[in-house]
What does this fold into?
Amino acid sequence: MRTLDSLGEVDGKRVLVRVDFNVPLQDGEVRDDARMRRAIPTLQELLDRGAKLLLVSHFGRPKDQEPEYSLAPVAERTSELLGVEVVLAPDLDDVPDADVVMLENIRFQPGETSNDPELAERLADLADYYVNDAFGTSHREHASTAGVVEFVEHSAVGLLFQSEVDMIRQLMSDPERPFLTIMGGAKVTEKIGVIDRFLDLADKILIGGAMTTPFLRALGHSTGDSLCEDEGIEHARKALERDDYPNGKLILPEDLVLAQEFSDDTEVRILNGVDVPDGWMQLDIGSRARTRYVAEVRDAETIFWNGPIGAYEHKSFAAGSLAIAQALAAHPGTTVVGGGDSGAAMRAFGLADSITHLSTGGGASLKLIEGSPLPGLEALSD
Ligand code: ADP
Ligand code: MG
It folds into this structure.
């Protein structure tokens, strides 16, 4: 992985920095700039070293060049964060010679997502150096995240990208033990590769969220109307078998919180057990499971959490995720959270700054753990 230092002298040079500024807007303004602030150290270091910046990011999934997908509000916030003027360049043919330029939404260019070499070369021609700090997009093989590297002479990862990769690699190679992982969220099929790796590398794996349902089904329990991804059941069955459950590393909740709908003002039932009756859904872990899971967090030295362990968006089903989040925040060891919704939960609980590392790339960090290639990283590896 080539780092910023490897670029050497950048004074007076134009550096194209691929950032992931795909942030939520509200009323034409950036609503949450957490992701942007994480890339500021890279931009600041390059500016301090005398470089001129050309910032490139995608924003949403435009079909055409719809104005609501313009990066204009993002350019404005970047200017506030850096304390310098940021000029928005409408397209590649019209890039002004300012100190900091932001190119309009790169997905307005038809060749971006298809990784068209012509677009990659045009991007490369706009700068002397290329830096990728968009870890959250590094699992995509797009012109601005991967293709461009071939056409520039000097390229490197930014500080955020580097810290993300270093953290995951450290977790996977030499974690302080016991190493506990907590896997929740919705889709087992998406995350089974990660669970498989953790069956090798972690000491314990707590299961929560909708992810629990296929595991319960694989064990022969009834799950009522709980959200259940059917292809997940076979994956769960294999994982349980590989793990020699219940004598292995996997731990499932022993009680559940049930409701009939996803809502805050619906009747809630506590199930002392895991056989969900017809008409009901499991939407959170119960209090005994919560106590057990929090105790497991306390007993571990290194903890990785991906995926909310309940439908945390509703207060009635947030207790499990909140208890885990608080236990992580209070933990003195290494605490890492990856995943879009798990990160959002940490922020919603106001605990995002109390853990060791909050990943800006849910999909990318899972790919890295799983051992799948990240095109954006491969392009910048020696
Ligand atoms: P992440 O983005 O952190 O990887 P996922 O996208 O896999 O997480 O899953 C997040 C979603 O899972 C949330 O919208 C949450 O409401 C939902 N969820 C969690 N637990 C349950 C559950 N028991 N039943 C239904 N949905 C759930
Ligand atoms: Mg998600």
